């Protein structure tokens, strides 16, 4: 909706603020950052938590772009047929060493989205203003879809509806 038809202008910041309100009480997932020290080695430590809405992570105060998602786990003693499987197991173990519990979902490599830049007409992360409509690119290869519909669907899924 735009101001020319007499309605209020819908902004990305207003849509995200409403989504945070709608998500109150819904389960959050861990935000992690990589750390390395001589004594404790490589690990992924908890720096917060967020609601995971596909391409977006929402905290109480910020919107973030999703990157790597993993589940903290002990790599155990396994034979790996691929080096990539060994690397994924090591990343899961780094989260465990950093203080996440076994099986916790951890988001690493996320980036902050400048929501106010999007409101002003720029793009930031997966968000952009497309023909005056706040929109989200829901995958690297996907196109944009209206942010309002995307949030409605994702919030309902996270809350157990839809």
Q: Which labels suit this protein?
A:
7-stranded mixed β-sheet, disordered N terminus, elongated
Give a concise summary:
The chain is α+β, with helices and mostly antiparallel strands and 162 residues long. Helix content is 27%, strand content 31%. The chain has helices at residues 12-22, 83-97, 115-119, 147-158; strands at 29-37, 41-53, 56-58, 63-65, 68-71, 105-108, 111-112, 127-130, 133-137, 144-146.
Topology summary:
Layout: H1 12-22, E1 29-37, E2 41-53, E3 56-58, E4 63-65, E5 68-71, H2 83-97, E6 105-108, E7 111-112, H3 115-119, E8 127-130, E9 133-137, E10 144-146, H4 147-158
Helix pairs in contact: 1-4
Provide an overview of this structure.
The chain has 162 residues and is of the alpha+beta class. The protein has 4 helices and 10 strands. It has helices spanning 12-22, 83-97, 115-119, 147-158, and strands at residues 29-37, 41-53, 56-58, 63-65, 68-71, 105-108, 111-112, 127-130, 133-137, 144-146. The strands form 2 sheets. The protein has a 7-stranded mixed sheet with strand order 5-6-1-2-3-4-7. A hairpin with a 2-residue loop joins strand 8 and strand 9 (133-137). Helix 1 (12-22) packs parallel to helix 4 (147-158). The longest helix has 15 residues, at 83-97. The chain is elongated, with a radius of gyration of 18 Å. The protein starts with 11 loop residues before the first helix and ends with a helix. The model is unreliable at 1-6 (pLDDT under 50).
